[in-house]
Structure formats: structure tokens, C-alpha cells
Write a structure and sequence with these properties.
The complex is a heterodimer of chains A (about 190) and B (about 220). Chain A is mainly α and about 190 residues long. Chain A has 9 helices and no strands. In chain A, about 35% of the residues are buried. Chain B is about 75% helix and about 0% strand. Classes of the chains: A mainly alpha (about 190), B mainly alpha (about 220).
């Protein structure tokens, strides 16, 4: 005999499982925490797609939501359901993403390559990059704090966007914007606007 | 790097750096925890410095009693709502919760002005007293707001503006409520304008400093 599980029951089981893992995570159980984060990623991704254009942008939202969950995990009340708490965070970060995208698209051009590499080819080989880093070090001090942090973490120390976001307390999207602006400011400071 | 692989690595990084956290108490308890010592402090200050007998006489007038009640309720409800709004999974409708008592407060104050025939009194004196009211509300509000925002920032609210607006409105309304005990004359139009301006200044300051004051998570 095949037993079919009603969707409502499935959702209840999922809620109970995630709430249990989150309780353990709040108590400091890293294994349960990782298990929970991996379990909720598809759920977050499905919500993130509603707020983003393209898979890359959606993944930015996913990473932002994960970082946010991590930072405010103490705000989930174990006496309340977990899914609405998570969905509220995902919706909030998604809406922030839309607002930021529309703000940026009004004022700036998107240059994906700016996040990956410096414009001058010589800056991309390792020794060249080190030399360039030495040259721009004094100029970094002239940058606003968050732009400097973003550039140092991603370009000089080679952290991934997600790691840099976690370390600096900025969202992935904000970090990308700050890297982009920092590169632009440095070009201006070096007298190379082209 | 593939973004999904990056997400996977992020999860490992977050897991490695995990520490135990104590869940925040429910917002109504946190609000109570903040309001109780403040209430005791205010009661002690009023007992010591205010003319309570005169105030009791004035409160016999229903309009004035309602005005006081409106200011007090605006303060309490706005502060409770700020604690609710600081959490991601609570209703956004909490931001409108202070509006009914605020309307009561403003309506009663407005009616008071009209009853006084918009009496501006001897202009110089009244303006001087009104500016004292302004200073009173702002100066009392600031230290109280600091303690409130220190407590609210523990939630690292995702919507800091709403939390800041409601929290600051609550603090300014409570300061205005306390002021009523030291305001032994009827409110004139200038007084009302100064009270409103003081509340707006406190709310605007909180809105401007919200990111520093509340350390939002996003």
C-alpha cells in the first residue's frame, strides 16, 4: 500500500525539522546549523528568484539571506514557527535588492568585469598585482571606510564576496557596489578615468 | 567561482564560526523590562519635583485628562511597537499602532488651544516659556532614547527606519507627558507648535542616526 503524504503534513514536518535544527543551532551545535542552512537554501533560492533577474543575482540574495540569518539568529523565538521568520528575512533582503538595483541602474553602469579584475592586464598577474597593491596602498586611505574594506578584502586578500561580506558585516550586494565604487575612485585618483 | 559553490563554502564558514546565542525575550517582555525602571524613575521625579495637588485639580477637567492619557498611551504604545518592529517575523501593522492615541493627544491639545481662543498671551513671555518646553522635551528625550536604542539594537532590525521612528516618537511622547506636570498653564498655539516641533526634532534625529543607533543586520 502506498501512503501519500498530504502537502500540509509535509510542510508541518519540514517546519518541525527546521525548528529543531535551529534550536540546536542557537545552543551552539555547528553540525545542526550547517544541516539547517543547507536544508533551507532551496527554499530561500525559490524566494530569491522572485526578487532577482538572473541566477547570479538570485544567488547574491541567497548569500545575503544566509548572512542575515546568521547575524540575527537570536531573534527567532523558539516558541514561534521558524518558516515565517525565515521567509520574512528573505523577503526583506529581496526587496532591498530590488531597491538597490533600481537605484544603481539609475546612476551607474554595471561592469561585471570590475569585480573580477583590474582594467590593466598587467595588474592581473600575481607579481604585478602585488606591486600594484603596494602602489595603491597610500591611495586606499583616501577611500571611504566601507569601500576600502571591500576592496582590501576582495582584491588584496583574495576573499570571496561571501567571505568578505561575512567579515565586513556588509551584504554581498553592498560589497559589490563598494568594490565597484572603490575601483572607480582609485582610477580617478590615479588620473585614469578611461 | 560558481556562485552555488561559493554559497556552499559560505555555509561551511558560518558553521565553523558558530557560537551559542540566547534567544531574545518576547517583545512585550522587553518593552516591559525597559518601561518599568523608567516608570519608577519618572514617578520618583514627579513625587519629588512636581506639584501633584495642582496637577490633580487640573486633571479634573476631562479634556486635560484625555490629553495626558493620549500622550502617555502614545509613548507606551509607540515603544511597545518599536520592540515588535525590531523583529523580522512580526506584523508590519505595528508601525500604525501609535496613531490612535496620537490622534487623541493632538485632538485634545488642539481643542485646548481653541478653548483658549488661540490665546497667545503676552507674546514675549509665552514664547520664552514655549522654548523652555522645547528644550525640556528634547533634553529629557535624548538620554532616554539612548537607553531605548541600546536595547532595540540587540535585535539588529532589518527595517531600522520604522523602529527608529516609533521608538523616538514613544520617547518624545513620554517626555511631553512628563512636561505636563511642570506646565501649570493652559496650552496655547505656540506651546502646541513647540511641543510638536520638539517631538519632530527627536524623531528626525533618530531617523538620521538610525543605522548607527540600531546596527541593522543588512
Amino acid at each position: 500500500m502506498i501512503l501519500a503524504m498530504a502537502p500540509g503534513t509535509q510542510a508541518q514536518l519540514q517546519e518541525a525539522a527546521w525548528a529543531g535544527l535551529m534550536r540546536a543551532a542557537q545552543a551552539g551545535d555547528a553540525h545542526s546549523y550547517e544541516q539547517l542552512l543547507r536544508a533551507i537554501v532551496p527554499f530561500i533560492r525559490s524566494l530569491a528568484r522572485r526578487y532577482s533577474r538572473g541566477a547570479t543575482a538570485a544567488e547574491d540574495v541567497v548569500q545575503d539571506v544566509l548572512l542575515c540569518v546568521h547575524r540575527i539568529r537570536h531573534t527567532w523565538d523558539p516558541a514561534r514557527p521558524f518558516c515565517p521568520w525565515l521567509a520574512a528575512i528573505a523577503a526583506r533582503r529581496g526587496i532591498d535588492r530590488i531597491r538597490r538595483d533600481s537605484r544603481i541602474s539609475r546612476h551607474e553602469l554595471n561592469d561585471e568585469a570590475a569585480y573580477e579584475t583590474f582594467a590593466a592586464p598587467a595588474a592581473n598577474n600575481e607579481t604585478g598585482a602585488l606591486r600594484a597593491a603596494e602602489q595603491i596602498e597610500p591611495l586606499l586611505a583616501a577611500l571611504p571606510e566601507r569601500q576600502r574594506q571591500a576592496l582590501e578584502a576582495t582584491k588584496l586578500r583574495g576573499l570571496s564576496l561571501a567571505q568578505a561580506a561575512e567579515e565586513s558585516g556588509q551584504s554581498v550586494a553592498a560589497l559589490k557596489v563598494n568594490v565597484h565604487r572603490a575601483v572607480k575612485s582609485l582610477r580617478r585618483l590615479l588620473g585614469n578615468d578611461g | 567561482m560558481d556562485r552555488k559553490v561559493e554559497t556552499d563554502r559560505l555555509i561551511s564558514t558560518l558553521g565553523q564560526g558558530l557560537s551559542a546565542v540566547k534567544p531574545l525575550r518576547p517583545p512585550q517582555w522587553r518593552a516591559l523590562l525597559w518601561l518599568t525602571p523608567l516608570a519608577l524613575l519618572v514617578l520618583a521625579a514627579l513625587w519629588r519635583y512636581a506639584n501633584l495637588a495642582a496637577m490633580a485639580q487640573r486633571l479634573a477637567e476631562p479634556r486635560l485628562a484625555l490629553e495626558c492619557l493620549g500622550a502617555l498611551l502614545t509613548g507606551v504604545v509607540a515603544i511597545v511597537s518599536a520592540f515588535y518592529l525590531s523583529l523580522p517575523d512580526r506584523s508590519e501593522l505595528w508601525r500604525f499602532a501609535p496613531l490612535p492615541p496620537l490622534a487623541l493627544w493632538l485632538a485634545c491639545s488642539g481643542v485646548g488651544c481653541l478653548e483658549n481662543g488661540l490665546g497667545l498671551g503676552p507674546a514675549g513671555d509665552r514664547l520664552g516659556e514655549s522654548s523652555s518646553c522645547f528644550k525640556f522635551i528634547v533634553i529629557i528625550s535624548l538620554p532616554i532614547a539612548v537607553t531605548l536604542f541600546l536595547m532595540l539594537r540587540r535585535a539588529r532590525p532589518l527595517l531600522p527606519l520604522r523602529v527608529a521612528l516609533n521608538g523616538a516618537l514613544g520617547v518624545a511622547a513620554l517626555a511631553a507627558f512628563v512636561l505636563m506636570f511642570f506646565h501649570p498653564f493652559e496650552v496655547t498655539l505656540i506651546d502646541l507648535a513647540m511641543h510638536a516641533l520638539a517631538v519632530l526634532v527627536v524623531v528626525a534625529l533618530a531617523a538620521l542616526l538610525r543605522r548607527t543607533a540600531l546596527a541593522p543586520a543588512g
